[in-house]
Amino acid sequence: MSHRLQVLIPKELDARIRKAASRERVSKGEWVRRAIQMALSHGTDARRGSDPLARLAALEAPTGDIDQMLEEIEAGRS
Description:
Layout: H1 11-24, H2 28-41, H3 46-50, H4 52-58, H5 66-77
């Protein structure tokens, strides 16, 4: 059984959703349902997505000693 959900959004966001739905040849409702499902299945946290440090930490890239890194940066400038 389906349930109705009414959400108020700004005009600009509505236009972006309309364009995205049109590109995928689906209704706006279907596009929003898919976006919500994807966000929930990936455990997306809106705050994490906009936090640059969280995105950087998610890369799990190698790190080094800060003093050594600064020395290498300075050495590269000469």
